[in-house]
Amino acid sequence: MMQELIERFIPQVYEALEIGHKAVIHPHSSEIQNVFISGMGGSGIGANFVQDFVKEVASVPLLVGKGYSIPSWINKNTLAIVSSYSGNTEETLACFEQLLSTGAKIVAVSSGGKIIELAKQHKLDHIILPGGWPSPRACLGFSFTQQMCILEKLGIIPNELIQQIRSGNQLLEADSENIQEKARHIAQILQDKIPVIYTTDRMEAVAIRFRQQVNENAKMLCWHHVIPEMNHNELVGWRNPYQQMGVIVFRNRDDVPRNAARIDINKTIITEYTNTWIEVYSKGNNLIEKSMYLVHLGDWISMHLSIFRNVDPDEIKVIDYLKEELSHL
User: Fold this and answer.
1) CA pair distance 262, 192, nearest whole angstrom
2) 29, 135, 138, 211 from 301: Cα distances, Å
3) Span 154-158, mean pLDDT?
4) What is the average per-residue pLDDT within 304-325?
5) Which end of the chain has fewer CB atoms < 10 Å from its terminal CB, N or C?
6) CA 27, CA 20: separation in Å to the nearest integer?
């Protein structure tokens, strides 16, 4: 199932672009001065990508919330996007209910559930996503695309960024076979390792997404950090041999020169303690294209890891158990 869902990422993005184009988002009665996006898991990671994509061009600041509460500064000048594929995510619902009394411009994004019920009840703008996708983390294309389209329709980001999503998808189509081959090769190297994921600060969402997919699809623990911040702390932890660690670094040809130099120096230091160091360079002409390339590659790496490790990528019994236990409280 998960393999089929990853294969459907490219058509999903095209469908998401069409949904976003047709969505009706009304202007707000007050000037929008900030943006808050509430989402968890597969819906929340979409917001992380949006945060990365828009921070250098957005006309207002944007914050992602992943919990039960909202910031105290939210008011009538806030755009609040509530994103939950299922429509029943309890943390996102809690935030939604708090947002209703703030006067914020609220837009709901979901396939249904209580999120859409509340949006209709309060006559709020909402975008209904296609149902039937069994895993919210397989709906990343729907998630970040709709959030970007909302920002574009309200004049917070330029339309150019929406076009970059389309060109990013075209890149994935053209490079599909190479992505598969590269993903399989990397997974072979990492299958018996603990993945340690590094990238630069402007692409942290890519590292988070890959970490989450390795956790859920391959049933492996791993961690991520970003450069340059990790050079001020985690680098000191590389002090003893850790041959069980497999370092994978997501790089870009246009990384800040000082960060590129940091990665090269890190390699010299870290490869004293582990012989597994993998560098993956992105493809694309801009941040969105590069991120989409690395996301799709990372998804396929996690899928091949599940095959090599003989685990079911769809099984999430421990999360189901957690939700069941919480339902009794």
Assistant:
1) 27
2) 46, 18, 15, 11
3) 97
4) 95
5) C
6) 16
